[in-house]
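User: Can you write out an input/output pair for a complex, sequences first and structure second?

Assistant: Here is one pair. Inputs:
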Amino acid sequence: MNDMRIADRTVSTDTAKMTARGVQVYYGENHALKDVDIDILGGTVTAFIGPSGCGKSTFLRCLNRMNDTVAVARVLGEIKLDGEDIYDKAVDPVTLRARVGMVFQKPNPFPKSIYDNVAYGPKIHGLTKSKAELDQVVETSLKKAALWNEVKDRLHAPGTGLSGGQQQRLCIARAIATSPEVLLMDEPCSALDPIATAQVEELIDELRSQFSVVIVTHSMQQAARVSQRTAFFHLGNLVEYGETGQIFTNPQDPRTESYITGRIG
Amino acid sequence: MNDMRIADRTVSTDTAKMTARGVQVYYGENHALKDVDIDILGGTVTAFIGPSGCGKSTFLRCLNRMNDTVAVARVLGEIKLDGEDIYDKAVDPVTLRARVGMVFQKPNPFPKSIYDNVAYGPKIHGLTKSKAELDQVVETSLKKAALWNEVKDRLHAPGTGLSGGQQQRLCIARAIATSPEVLLMDEPCSALDPIATAQVEELIDELRSQFSVVIVTHSMQQAARVSQRTAFFHLGNLVEYGETGQIFTNPQDPRTESYITGRIG
Amino acid sequence: MTDATSQTGLPGAQPRKSLHAADARTRRRNASEARFRFFGAAAIAISILALIVLLTSVLGNGLSAFRQTFITMPVALDAKVLDKSGTGDIEVMKKVTTIGYAKVIEKALTAALAEKGIATDGLDAKQISGLLSQEAAASLRNQVLADPSMVGQTVDVKLLANGRVDGFFKGRVTMDSAKLDSNISPEQLELALKMREAGLMSVSFNSGFLFGGDASELRPEAAGLGVAILGSAYMMLIVLVLALPIGVAASIYLEEFAPKNKWTDLIEVNISNLAAVPSIVFGILGLAIFINFMGLPQSAPIVGGLVLTLMTLPTIIIATRAALKAVPPSIRDAALGIGASKMQAITHHVLPLAMPGILTGTIIGLAQALGETAPLLLIGMVAFVREFPGAPPEGFFDPASALPVQVYNFTQRADPAFVERASGAIIVLLVFLLLMNAVAILLRRRFERRW
Amino acid sequence: RDNIQIAGSSTVLPYATIVAEAFGENFDFPTPVVEGGGSGAGRKKLCEGVGENTIDIANSSSRIKQSDIDLCKTNGVEEIMEVRIGYDGIVFASDIGGPDFAFTPADWYNALAAEVVKDGQLVPNTAKTWADVNANFPAQDILAFIPGTKHGTREVFDVKVLEAGCKASGAEEALVAAKGEEDGKKACLALRTDGLSVDIDGDYTETLARIAANKNAIGVFGLSFYQNNTDKLKVATMDGVVPSTESIASGEYPVSRPLFFYVKKAHLGVIPGLKEYIEFFVSDDMAGPEGPLAAYGLVSDPELAKTQEAVAAETPMGALN
Amino acid sequence: MSIGLITLIVLGLAVLGFILGRQRALSAVKGDPRTLHSLPGYYGWSVFLFTAVPALLLLVTWAFVQPIALNSHVSAMVPEADVASYGSTQLVMADVRRIADGLDAVARKAGLDEVGLEAMRADLTDMRGRLAEVGVALGSNVVPSVLDAAKEYRSLSGELRLAMSIAVLLAAVAGLLFALWRINPKQRARNLVEQFTLVLLAGCSLIAVATTFGIVFSLVIESVHFFKLYDFRDFFFSMTWNPQFRGGSDLGLWPLVWGTLYVSFIALLVSVPVGLMAAIYLSEYAGKKVRAFAKPAIEILAGIPTIVYGLFALITVGPFLRDWFAQPLGLGSSSSSVMTAGLVMGIMLIPFVSSLSDDIINAVPQSMRDGSFGLGATQSETVKQVILPAALPGIVGAILLAASRAIGETMIVVMGAGAAAKLDLNPFEAMTTVTVKIVSQLTGDTEFASPETLVAFALGLTLFCFTLALNVVALVIVRKYREQYE
Ligand SMILES: Nc1ncnc2c1ncn2[C@@H]1O[C@H](COP(=O)(O)OP(=O)(O)OP(=O)(O)O)[C@@H](O)[C@H]1O
Ligand SMILES: Nc1ncnc2c1ncn2[C@@H]1O[C@H](COP(=O)(O)OP(=O)(O)OP(=O)(O)O)[C@@H](O)[C@H]1O
Ligand SMILES: [Mg+2]
Ligand SMILES: [Mg+2]
């Protein structure tokens, strides 16, 4: 694996931003996730890898309670954000999701203008007091998403008119406009071409200075490129979790090893 | 790439089963495939790799004229099967497709029984004379697809009730029941879990003794595992084509190299 | 891979032939393909042929209703007859009934004929005045009462000709049929011909058909659709205002919020059942609930509107649910992922995207309601209504008719002149339906933001 | 409510609309709303109670029934006025191009009944053509369009044609002998079911359209309908009498019935114009022999003057006799 | 104050509450909306709802309860003897209410004051005449006790109305103040408003259920009357339908059901193949242009009023079938027949089958087609062996919908099939259907309280059960296949 470009491994020393303990997920009868314990660190990109159907997306969606919208899903165990249980009765999932944003596999901009796409979050959460402030937020978010230069002249053009990579960056801008603390990304590049992928990866690396980023990916190369920590899932189990460099160069578990050497998956 | 398991490289010495010269494909204005020349050898597994949108599927679908069903698609150039131009006016695509079979990315069994799924091709092409003969074909095909043991007791259960991997093998059985000469497979494992993937890969390796197999895959490991020859596409161009071992260990083109080392894609 | 080791060739495998030589089987298959295709085209052809036959028969019968024969002549409004007190007092003038006016017109017609030098041999005064519609006197009376200063002058007035005369010019009545007809004689028709040559009689556009009220069987030539059009419009307004919001609200609940359990299943069966319940049953419902139980007035658009609302609701709900279902879940996910509540995701994103589908469904439902006859028969909408209903909302409680009912009504009348009017009413109805469909298409285009 | 509301018989409906139209033109009151819906439904609505949301007048092609009066009583409608407006003649007509017929009720009975007397024997009816029924008739296939059982006209047809014909042809005697008094009389009304006698639930327009489609059929019409379509229909005589307003008024033509409307007395003097409307209806200008109703086909009542008096005096109807 | 006015005032207060609530929420956080739980507007809405909803609910309840309470109080005032002359308390109360209304009108018209009204005496003034002058119809002369009751009714209802206005307005103000007082930045205003909206939405979806109840209720009541007059065994098991004008009818259901089924069957025989083939052609073969033209053209067929089809059946199709088929084949000479109605109804139903099937066929995933083409199937083979089976549940649903249309259709049958109720196999015979008889029995000249008329309701009920069964079957079929294939 020596020819893989491994991102520099300066792991932030922050304490855990989110902690999961004994998380189990059932879809009806299907036990999709089995007893997952994990700490997501602040200021870090964490990658979830593993073969198809192993429960990566499922776990990711537990982190901002998107699984609440699936009628058959049942989540057990404890997940804390800054020490507060997010599955507590008193927690409003809507507020939670403003703090733990999400970007999806397929770019899904709203069929509205670019501006409205980004401004939507701040608007519904009442984050700004004036139009000028909102403009400011939109601009900053687009800049952070490395999209500002490409779209600043057509903020009122439809967001769906952008190319795939731009759309995905727009979705990222939309997610960071509500200034979340954690950003979850479910295979954000799988629908993109190589150039767009490279741009988004670069972006993820920059975002890490402000947010914790959790990214699900099918491509080990991508995990190696962008993440500092990697978790390997297999058949609903968290098999191994550790620093990316270590996972890719020196996996402890035989399953991890066969996966990253291409024997399975 | 030394830790990749490379399938044994015994390349059949057959002459080319199919030859393509100067193939260009347009989707409306979009020039999707640019001047592709390739020889598909008999008794060989040929893998098409390349980043998303580079035209792998497009070219594959040219080989049995499935692109005829896309209204906007226009195919130029020449493709020959056993020396006969398949785009000739006199050629009935229906006959062609019986000889060049296809398996798709998502398993798409018909909403019929397992038996009817497999018997469909032989029936419409009138390949069998009696029910007994048809039974025989179904059995042989299912055996070849390594599915017989799993389904022989429920041949009249719906094919859609099988698991994903079984469904995909059912689709393969369905395709080989018409005894085609070439079998085209478009990412046949991308919707399958690792175990099912392994089974299908093994199957592909065995099929090669009777058919030419062309497989599109996103996973370089898979290409390495199952194919004898590999073609690398990039932005509509056929960048490099050669023996799999050589492509993976000693690529001639810098684009190929960056792709298989994970720098792009 | 033990299975695959049995490497026997497939029994069906046949020696390969050239791609170019189509064998008999291929030819047969291609022939069957062609046949199938032909059946499909034939099915389309049959449907369109049926449409053409129906439309031509309606248009052929009904277009003539939009033209009407009029008699234009000077009428001397004799003050002695029409204003006995001589003071121009309206109340006194109202005492003169249409019978009095009929006499004035009769005199004027004789005079006009004499002036043009048209011989009227063999026809008595009653037969001559029989060329005029009975409506003529009423319309003249209304004109005079509207402008009493006309009395004493001679004014040019345009009066309706009798339905049979009108039918003669439209080809419905012939000299032969007139011989047998107890309501008109060939001599009268001869006279009508002469009057037309002399410019006393002419056929022109009949605005009364679109804007006038209904008329009794004695004067088919005066019957119009005004009240029916207005009644239908009121009902559609009620249906739109009630069925659209209720239907959309119900669909949102059922599609997005309702837990999937036995109860929602029940509601679902119930709604699809309502969509299929014969419309006549809704008439019975309307009669029992709205008229007998709630005491709403008979023949009023409000009752018709409510019945049609209940009838349209399932259609709208089904269409709306389909439209909501068609909105990609990724849009919902996107909104939820940013922290929008479910309600916000739906109102901000899903509903606008589903709008074209909802509107199309609504308009289809409305169109169905517009053409519906059977339930209205049971709630008293098949009435003879000559007065226009008032402006809404009070007008909703005034008696009115409705277009399909008016068609039904016309088809029941004895005088053959009503046949063309029934077809004419159908044309108006079809025009409305087409307009609504066009609006549906336009709206769909408008809202369909394939960004 | 400022308009008069009327509902009921579709036979009376055209007359009522003619009057309503003229009333609206010549009076300051709005044109009354006249609804069809059938005599039964009209009477039921009349008897639903007193008040603004009930109708004022029910048109009826048959006399009110005791059950209706009882319903009225329970709903507080104590007094109703019965107004007979004239007579409706029922005629038998065929396509204008066909032969002339001179019927008797017995001919109709022998043509349409389920069982007829042949050579003194009661036998199922097998007559195919009119010539089988009566040697004087042409050999035209029997096909009769008669009013459906929902129509009041059917009652008249049953009584004045079938029952009379049953008696005249001697079938009644035979039937009573075979089935007993009550069932025998009922059997007089049983029609053949082989499709030669067709019930029409729709209107006379439907009958006319059916005759246009079956040129050799004979249909039952109202006199007024026939008078408006003399160019398409040829009328048959009954017992040798040609139907006309005169022959019906004089009682010569046998198949006719009185038409009525019923007024809710409590509404008189309350609903504006109601009194005027009913007086206008029965006035000589309207219902008289020279009036428009007669022109349209209503056989005016020879005792119209009596009706006018009763209306003027607002005499309520007495007990049914 | 009238109810409308009170409603308006309450709504006005609610709007005021909205503005105040919004402001209060903002001022609670010194104008910084970020620290609020919900957007300020939601706080406004919460106050709006607290103001309007309880007050309006109170209003509605009061409006329902007041007349009941008032009636029982006032009716006690009328002595038994007078009640007896009316027949029932209900009628007395109807008169009391009419007189009370009339007194208002009299007062308005004559400019009488309360004292003047009190002084009116039934035995001294011609009350009936005076009331008639103001447009209030009374069945008979006014009894003194009833007049007194009416006066009491009038004054009491006035007082109650005033009390109601005060109570409702108090409720509104209280709600407004309470909601305002409740506002604090932590309050989950959005959740509250959304919860309320949800209840509203759920309420709307219940209207459909209520409609069904209404239908069943209105049908059952009169059906019960019918079965009191007519033995249900005769209705359900008799094979003859022969209503008589003067009673003694046979009202057996089966000839009508048979006619209904026969006509519907023929209609489906026409519409299903044609509609289905049209749908297949449109979705699988036709080019964009043909589709753009043919699809709406076929759909126009659905918009043509059924009466037009009826006339078409009567005038054109009927004679044609008789002259070219029925007579040459010796199957009778009736121009109106099951065949006529069925054919024409079939044409009407084509768009129902074709539109729905078209949608359903288009919904079959492209991967199915690809799979079949990839095996070398021709287009027709693909359609027949893959697409149709896959679309089958949906198509069955479409066909069943068309079937319920056919069963419920009235006009075409009236004109095309005639009115003869009989059990016959010959499709060239005239027959009739349930719906036709519902209309004709309900609008006939027979008296209303007779079984001949009331049978319409029993028929309606039967028809309703029939379509219900059909729908349940459709649902079961669709569910079953869906489970298998998805
Ligand atoms: N909505 C759902 N309902 C039922 N089962 C589900 C649902 N979503 C996922 N599953 C099941 O849960 C398991 C884990 O799925 P998940 O989507 O988390 O896998 P994944 O690792 O994200 O796979 P992929 O790489 O294909 O996205 C799978 O067996 C899947 O079938
Ligand atoms: N039916 C179509 N209509 C129009 N454009 C198409 C169509 N199918 C493919 N294309 C375009 O053709 C190009 C090549 O697509 P193709 O599907 O062959 O790529 P691919 O290499 O198979 O990608 P992937 O790995 O994502 O399957 C792309 O730009 C794609 O957008
Ligand atoms: Mg996933
Ligand atoms: Mg592809």
